[in-house]
Specification:
The chain is of the alpha+beta class and 332 residues long. It is 45% helix and 13% strand.
């Protein structure tokens, strides 16, 4: 907790819980051959090591490990194995039963440490070979990766039929409540609209359309970040849409609470300013309006905005009494 508080400016509760697990993993191997001081040092190192491990996998190696399992179990399993060669002491009750040498820090030299390193290398080599063979077999039979759409939506929904096992950290607003903003895992990996895949575009700016678009007149409602207002307005004007209603609204994340830290990333779930832009079009194809809005709003993150399209049954211009298509010609 202290380390994350210093590093990120506030304590990261989730990382603290992972650090507790990391301490348990690290002390497993040396638990019967070390003393209280050695156990304290092993646990302290494990707590810091899990933070480093999450950072290494997420930000440097770009390995998808949502719950920090590799940092907790792999890295601290290695650390615990090596710690036997550092902190084993003859004063521990089970030392004689274990039949090992004292650790480096207790005057035993490098002998036990060397044995622990050989053991670690042997297990790592065996694991690498067997898991590689296993993965190749799985890849040949089932495939190792789900589709891009399933990755973005999340396997909780596609495989288990759940909105999210960790609703507060969901990558996508599956409930369609129009409340999700930037969250812990929203970066889609592509910032330019032209380079994004259709799945990325759809995930970034959701579009909800009426099932029947036969009236020829459509109302398009766009919810977006306040910072994108000018770019969206220009995109609409370039398309020929000059009549629009703009309202400043407030939106909140699905956690509906104050910001907090998760895995070193700040989650901002507080109310944030947004804009709601409403336009009604008839001559301009609604598909062009949608495409222009998506391009203007896209930043490569989940929560760039949502677009709703409705049928309009009747339009009346109060000043002239014109109706439907005629009522829209000087504002579209």
């Amino acid at each position: 907790m202290i380390f994350t508080w210093i590093k990120y400016g506030k304590p990261d509760v989730s990382m603290c819980l992972n650090a507790s697990l990391a301490g348990l993993v690290a002390i497993t191997a040396p638990c019967d051959v070390t003393d209280a001081l050695g156990a304290t040092i092993i646990g302290a190192v494990a707590g810091v090591l899990v933070v480093f491990g999450v950072w290494l996998l997420d930000y440097k190696l770009h390995v998808d490990d949502p719950v920090g399992a590799v940092a907790v179990h792999c890295l601290n399993g290695i650390w615990g194995t090596i710690a036997v060669g550092l902190f084993a002491t003859s004063s521990s009750p089970a030392f004689e039963t274990a039949g090992i040498k004292e650790g480096l820090f207790y005057g035993g030299g490098f002998e036990q440490l060397g044995l622990q390193l050989i053991g670690f290398a042997a297990v790592a080599a065996w694991t690498a070979v067997t898991i590689t063979i296993t993965f190749f077999v799985i890849k040949a039979i089932f495939g190792l990766r789900v589709s891009e759409e399933e990755e973005i939506t999340g396997l909780d929904a596609t495989e288990h039929g759940l909105p999210s096992a960790y609703a507060g950290f969901s990558i996508m607003d599956i409930s369609n409540t129009m409340t999700m903003d930037i969250n812990a895992n929203t970066n889609l990996g592509v910032e330019e609209y032209e380079e994004a895949t259709p799945a990325m575009k759809d995930a970034s700016v959701k579009v909800a359309m009426a099932p029947d678009l036969t009236t020829g007149i459509h109302k398009v409602v766009i919810i977006a970040k306040l910072s994108r207002h000018d770019k969206l307005k220009k995109a609409m004007n370039d398309l020929g849409v000059t009549g629009m209603t703009v309202t400043q609204v407030m939106g909140c994340g699905i956690q509906k609470g104050a910001g907090e830290m998760y895995r070193g990333v700040e989650l901002d779930a507080t109310l944030l300013p947004k804009i709601k832009v409403e336009v009604v079009v008839s001559e301009i194809p609604v598909e062009k309006v949608i495409e222009a809005a998506k391009k203007a709003l896209y930043t490569g993150h989940i929560g760039d905005g949502k677009i709703f399209v409705y049928n309009v049954d009747k339009v009346v211009k109060i000043r002239t009494g014109e109706e439907d298509f005629a009522a829209l010609q000087d504002v579209e």
